[in-house]
Records
---
Amino acid sequence: MSSHAHAHHHPHDHGHSHGLVPDAIKRSREGLRAVGLALVVLGATAGLQAVVFAGSGSIALLADLIHNVGDAATAIPLGIAFALRSARAERWAGLAVVAAIFVSACVAAYEAVDRLVDPQDVGGLGALAVAGAVGFAGNWVAAIIRTRAGRRLDSPALVADGDHARADAYVSLGVVASAAALALGLDLVDPLIGLAISLVILRITWHSWRTVRGGHHHEGSRGT
């Protein structure tokens, strides 16, 4: 009995012991559940933000929206990795997460610079503030789901995604700040906040890359 309990404290053995296959399946299901739930939350968040962006044209909101869509899309490689119950696939999923964050930062930065060069009016400031608040709430919930599951399942890829979503929550508050600045007539603040969000995303990219790389050898002991 004690040896059985002891085995359950060593998740790294999942890929090596046939006696722990049920635990590997349980880990897979729990990972899929966490990834799927976070996808639903972020999908709903991005959907609402897309509707508000269509009416407002805020570049800060666009940057946040692009980021949230990219964040939600990372559920696909992570989901595949957990479904395959493969540590190697999980590492590749972590790299895909980092790549998605980086691309979203580049797109958001391009749009922000374009708006600085060619300013446009932004409307629906009340809805814009609400969209930022929703972005904060959605990302915070997704971060809690991913981080708790990532620590429980010993998954650096999932933990990196949780860190990403938590940072995104604060990024979304930039949209609220943009709405306030626009209400005061400070039109240039909107694309500047969009550019700032892009820089924050790049910082998140570096942090997530280090998390995933740090987990490479750690996960390697689990096998594939």
Note: The first helix runs from residue 2 to 7.
---
Amino acid sequence: MASTYLSRTPGTGQTSRTKGTLSVWLKRAKTDEEDFIFYGYEGSANRMKITFLPSGKLQINSIQAGSNHLVYETNRLFRDTSAWYHIVIAIDTTLATAGDRCRLYVNGVEETSFSTETHFSQNDLHFLTEDNRTIYIGSQGTGNYFDGSMSHYHLIDGTQYQASDFGEYDANGVWKIKTSPSVTYGNHGFFILKDGNSVTDQSGQSNNLTVGGGTLTNTEDCPSSVFATMNPLVPTSSLNFSNGNTTLTGTNATNYSSNNTSTLGASSGKYYFEIEYDTAGSNVSPSVGISPISISPTTNPTAAVTDFIVITMQNQIYVEGTNSASYLGSTPTTGDIIQIALDMDNGKVFFGLNGTFVGDPVAGTGGAFSGITSGETIALNIRPLNAVFKCNFGNGYFGTTAVASAGTNASGIGIFEYDVPTGFTALSTKGLNL
């Protein structure tokens, strides 16, 4: 949601100021800033926020008459940018036991370890669904935007529900969404972002939200199929991440040893991804390709590193440090799309440009390299220097721009600009388990 937020100002007729529930699935993109999940604002002396702090902790804070009436700050740190979290905050301030008045659940398990823990007083009022007061999702209203993705956002007016009302364990013990939970939303409740980017209320209450501050894009990445992104947790200098870590911007034209790998890699299977060369910068040697996922971010593509194969934007290919020129036929220019087909079953990688591969990934002939180490985990590798690359791992977007016309994809996983070679699929948790 980067620079985008949602808002709603309800009218009168709130079901309850003492009972309510918030449930949302979310995936973080950055961990070094404050990210707002919810903000209810009546004034500086009366407000409620649910946020990830720059430390990585999750905080729930309700202020009334200028003093803290509720503070939960977890000991647990939420720094995994490749995973979806299910967060549930369940409130009933009428209860006799202080610790039951606000309960926090993460992926179906109640959180009980807090560095700061101040409970609601009995019959305190909350700000989740207050009459005539604007609420914000993904922002503080003018900043602190949530950088990442959200899905299945429920706000309940009048009932304290548990995590099990919104999720359940599958046969493998994995916590998953209940897509149509049996809950009562109350007068100011709503259900948005159900399997897409619609802010039209799905609860039946017609409590729609408004998009502000930018464009709310859709993504194929979801709790049931997590897609790869580039990895901001790798300590690499001279790089900026945006658009859910799918856009990689270099900030130094001469830092040749600054590269980044995708969050997911594979040691078996066949995978396809697309990278748009968006901005050229002032250096002709930015590169995209594959490498072991564990490679040091300071490794230069000219180094003789096993299974490190990249294409530079001056149309040179480096295969484990050995350089050959004019590989793609024509030199990539801004706006071009580089294609990569990674065949880990046969240890091969193929490169293409704007819909045309060098070699045949389906037949397994004429590829850039044959002999990827068996059992090695291979990931996408990008060295932008001061260029900009936009990755489509199957989300159907390059940055915030949707693919012009989706190609065919027999696996049904992901949306790409060009036809996905038969037998290949997106680098995602669902794709990895085909």
Note: The two ends are 30 Å apart (CA to CA).
---
Amino acid sequence: MHQLIAALISGGPVITDGAWGTQMQARGLPSGECPDAWNLSHPDVVEEIPRAYVQAGSRVILTNTFRGNRIALEAAGLADRVHELNLAGAAISRRAAGDKASVFACIGPGGKMLCMGEISPEELRDVFAQQANALAEGGAHAIVIETMGDLAEATLAVEAARTTGLPIVACMCFDSGADRDRTMMGVTPEQAAQGLSEAGADVIGANCGQGIDGYIAIGRRLVAACDLPVWIKANAGIPKVIDGNIVYETTPEQFASRAAELVDAGVSFIGGCCGTSPEFIAALSQRLTPASP
């Protein structure tokens, strides 16, 4: 086990951070605008988010780089600024973390479908490697690959991120199937655990797609399927559209009340995804004893 991961989990479950996208929208990010661009245009506003999570009790925070690969940035006319945007994203979270938290830099899906032949494995691996190395140069302590639906894509991302020498967390999004226990490509928790472990991930997990209720069982299955630490970041429930607005109805207290079940399932890293906030992390902090960074 990587030294950093072992140190983090040595004191018990580690509280990570919550949502970034909904927090940026609350701070004025217009719908449809590239969040990653704010690393350069609004760095002080972006820094408010990880700083609030650290104050709420997060011992691991992510970065504003979910769409920071050159394919995703191309749609925003920013394909030539991959290095700059990721470097800034890592630096912003490092400043917010200080000596109180570790920065696990975020890599999201590439944006083109392998299974449809929209991109070759070699090109996609290079896309991920470019982003991962910029994040490492920016001072990230680890890399988080998240919200993946295609195991082949996630595996390529892990392989690419390993070139940095940093520990790697690899997460799939389980939101499909009759029991919502498969990714959009039909991958089960057991298949994800095997594939991500074999690719060289140091931590495996799940994020987004559904609320904490559904992720308790998935967390248990991931723990049973491999010997690696498990990471879970659930949404604040399933959103509803009310008066034209997307609303997450799960409260911080309701979310945190299920956290002990994740711990009992053997999950090592616990945080929130879409719809969660520093209030959710504070509620988790009151329920759980975080490990020291």
Note: DSSP finds 13 helices and ten strands in the chain.
---
Amino acid sequence: MSGRKRHLVVDTLGLVHAVVVHAASVQDRAGAKLVLAKLRGKAPRLQLLWADGGYAGQLVEWVRERCGWALESVKRSDDAVGFQVLPKRWIVERTLGWLGRFRRLSKDYEATTESSEAWITIAMISLMLRRLAPY
């Protein structure tokens, strides 16, 4: 089976701090461990992470024990019908939307996961530069 998943850690502005791309066959919780391990030691002020409801369970304990952070799941209400904007969850979705505007990231053109991660990094650098020095 082909396909890839992207795991991003973004701040409240939507800027990427860590990215991991892996095969779609890897479970989300395992992918979360990969991206959080990449971030460990690089964000000394980080205390709280918000994540999708799929990242609950044993991952919450793992994050607390291994990284020293609190992981809070942002879950959809059981009463909700249809689409609903979830607090804090929209931030990473917005970042994924920004990345989707880059032609190279709109589809999976890359041969390796490393090059896919590199292009995500390049796209975020481009976004940040445009915001710092607009035309």
Note: The chain has a mean pLDDT of 88.
